[in-house]
Design a protein that fits this description.
mainly alpha; 6 helices
């Protein structure tokens, strides 16, 4: 194998680790006892606990929360697909001025990450009291 291929494999492994690291961190944190979670610097837990998992299902209707989230996400997705399909068909089939501008705006908006508007949205809602 050439040196170039080795560097490519190392790069791919680093990228994979970068994507998997948050999930690994979440798993490690879920297995860490409460008193060790806030310890600095964050290190691997001294002892592992599984007590957090039953606590999720005790006292609160967790399954109901998941079902509600599924229903809302499904309804929002279906609504977006229906409206988006009608709009896309109209833009594709009709001849109108500004068609390129509309498509450019749709592309620009879809490239903008939704998390970027969380802070401004919070400030706006806070100003409403």
């Amino acid at each position: 194998m050439r040196l170039r291929n080795i560097w490519l494999y190392i790069l791919v492994l680093l990228i994979i680790f970068g994507f998997l690291a948050p999930y690994l961190w979440q798993l490690i944190t879920s297995l860490t006892p409460d008193e060790e979670v806030t310890k600095l610097p964050p290190i691997l837990p001294q002892k592992i606990t599984l007590s957090h998992y039953p606590e999720v299902f005790e006292g609160k209707p967790f399954a109901r929360y998941i079902l509600n989230s599924f229903v809302v996400a499904s309804a929002a997705t279906l609504f977006s697909l229906i409206i988006g399909s009608f709009c896309a068909y109209a833009v594709a089939r009709l001849k109108m001025r500004g068609k390129s501008l509309i498509l450019g705006m749709v592309l620009a908006i879809s490239m903008f990450p939704p998390i970027a508007i969380v802070s401004p949205l919070y400030l706006l809602l806070k100003s409403f009291n």
